[in-house]
Amino acid sequence: MVQAILFDFWGTLAEAGEWSPLKQARNILEIRMPFSEYVLKLERVLMTQKFDSLSEAFKAVCAEFAIKPEAWKIEKLIGMWNKSWMLAKPYDETIEVLEALKKEFTLVLISNTDNISLPKVLDKFNLEKYFEKKFLSFELGLIKTDKKFLELILKKLNLTPEDCLLVGDSLESDIAAAEAAGIKAALVDRKNTREYANKIKNLKELKELLW
């Protein structure tokens, strides 16, 4: 029986203010490797440590990809990234659903994120109050696809995989990670373009998987 619901943030609970910041960063930096390989590499450098500024963060990304950190590229990345979190907002049903679920389940926030953007969005919309715990990649030094990420969460919360449901919008970062850990998963597919057994189009449909 599900006791805890592990929620991804971006694309699950909230939408970014910019179209696919990760894809935009790839285009700005002119990175040609396959997207799945690029995302993994970028998240490991950008989202598993704390930076004092986005400038420092993107210079580290350039170093990781052996790209010259040209000033105009760094400025363009910073502008896009800032716009993305500044214009970010919860999906229409997010707060209503979290309010209802919090009464019956332990809600946990999990996310691959830098240390600058997501904390500001949580604060802006007063979202942190809905979660018993939060596990963010920059604090753990791990991303969700690292085996130890979900193992650590289960240990910290004293839960078994059977006690949890993971809700996310990425087949790679969320669903595959959950399945590898033996945790039931629900795919949020708002555009209804992908196939998965436990698929929902919005968070209100979660009740069909929980009760």
Give an overview of the whole structure.
By secondary structure, this protein is α/β, with parallel strands linked by helices. The protein has 2 domains: 133 residues, 3-Layer(aba) Sandwich (Rossmann fold), CATH 3.40.50; 66 residues, no CATH class. It is built from 10 helices and 8 strands. The protein has a 6-stranded parallel beta sheet, sandwiched between helices. A two-stranded antiparallel sheet has the order 2-3. Strand 6, helix 9 and strand 7 form a beta-alpha-beta unit. The chain starts with a strand and ends with a helix. The model has no long low-confidence stretch (mean pLDDT 96).
How would you briefly describe this protein structure?
The protein has 2 domains: 4-14 and 89-210, 3-Layer(aba) Sandwich (Rossmann fold), CATH 3.40.50; 21-86, no CATH class.
Secondary-structure element string: EEHHHHEHEHEHHEHEEH
Shape: globular
Largest sheet, spatial ordering of strands: 5-4-1-6-7-8
What's the β-strand tally? Answer: 8
Structural class: alpha/beta
CATH class of the largest domain: Alpha Beta
Proportion of residues in extended strands: 5-15%
Tally of separate helices: 10
Separation of the first and last Cα atoms: 10 Å
Identify the notable features of this structure and list them briefly.
211 residues, alpha/beta, 2 domains, six-stranded parallel β-sheet, two-stranded antiparallel ribbon, 10 helices
